[in-house]
Amino acid sequence: PEGRPCRVRALAALGNVAHPNANKVEMWNHLATRDAIVHCSALAAPADRKCREQALQSLVHLAYADDNRVPMCDHLATMQALAVGIALAAPDDRTCRELALTALANLSVSEDTRIPIWSDPATRRALVDGIALKASGDRKCRVRAFGVLENLLEDPQVIADVRANVPAVRAA
């Protein structure tokens, strides 16, 4: 608990460093930095919300770099952290949900990431749950989740899997 403000400031500094594309790739390739960001982005305690927000913001920045997209999707802990960020249900975690969906949207623009994103069960479930959000304040999150799904549905294999395995689509 006493280290949280320091952790938040350190993650904010990492997020600022991640702006130029070259720095983004270097940051992702630095194992200790990547592990710290991913670890903090998956913290679920309410007291860690600011830390989680800063870490997810860093993931958003890292996902803008073309050279990071496939490695980020192949990194199971990153995909799990994004799924946790999307699935958080507390109203004050809406920012975390938006950031996780934004990072996923950044990742899903690449043809090479659509299958890995859709194939990860936790990410797929979180994405479907994000689309199903009913609270009026979650409209922005629902729109982002639909945007990710729209990107994923540009892949024929994802379309076939949706038709075969999503009951609402099979019934239509």
- Count of discrete alpha- or pi-helical segments spanning 4 or more residues: 12
- The termini sit apart by 51 Å
Proportion in β-strands? under 5%
Order of helices and strands: HHHHHHHHHHHH
Main beta-sheet annotation: none
What is the strand tally? 0
Q: What does the overall shape look like? A: globular
Q: Which stretches are poorly predicted, pLDDT < 50 over at least 5 residues?
A: none
**Rg result:** 16 Å
For the residues shown, what is the average pLDDT?
Answer: 83
Write up what this structure looks like.
With about 170 residues, the chain is mainly α. The protein has helices spanning about 5-15, 20-30, 30-40, 50-65, 65-75, 75-85, 95-110, 115-120, 120-130, 140-150, 155-165, 165-170. Helix 6 packs across helix 7 (about 95-110).
Keywords:
172 residues; mainly alpha; 12 helices; 76% helix; globular
Q: How are the elements arranged and paired?
A:
Layout (H helix, E strand, L loop, with lengths): L3 H14 L3 H9 L1 H11 L7 H15 L2 H9 L1 H12 L6 H15 L5 H6 L1 H11 L7 H14 L3 H10 L1 H5 L1
